[in-house]
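S.,

Sequence below, as promised.
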Amino acid sequence: MQFAVIDNNVDPMTPEQGRGRGFVEALDAWVKGKDYEFIRYDRIAAAAEDAVRYRGLILSGSRYDFARRDDRLDLDTYQKMTPELQLLRDFDAPVLGICFGHQLLALAEEFEIGRTDFGQLRIRNMEAAEDDGLVTRLRLESGLRFTSRTELWVQNNHRQEVVPTEALLERFEILARSELCPVQVLQHRARDWFGVQFHPEIGRNSRRGDTHRHDDAERDGYALIRDFVRYCLK
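The prediction came back faster than expected:
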């Protein structure tokens, strides 16, 4: 197996519909079960010995939240993700974190077993209402190492975001921002860790905003995932 998609969803993804189908369609140049596999976040402990040898990981989104309504750390979610955070600490190949996976990747830099509150790296609730299915255009302020693309149509669907603290900027570059979200794309300064707050695996029609741009977001999102996998396997 060459690489894996870590499924962080509350309910398991399936290849036939939604986000699972989006990943399968984006990864159509590679054979599921031969080149890559889905691994549930709660099965990582059992698969960790094999997973550290993969040539790349994609961390999916999720309806889990790292921040409670008062913006304090949700200990239950953090505990659920402890095996994944431990895996990232030991993983040397490229990682692409998507939405919740992007937030998880940011927190992995300060991972501590038994943490009870956020450290210098934080996740918070968005001030605006949940951007369910909103399609927007992003311009990258500087280059992502795994792609030559500088503009993307993207689908947003999140209610929490990474906080751009001084500690975050010491570890990561922010490559794209928007009025909607101050940290849309992250790139680690020393490791091949990349985070996107949007959903390149789109998987379903957008419902508001520039809805006529759904096809463009699907095209650009799938291309971004393919560029990442090629970077992993080069």
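The mean pLDDT is 91.

Coffee later?
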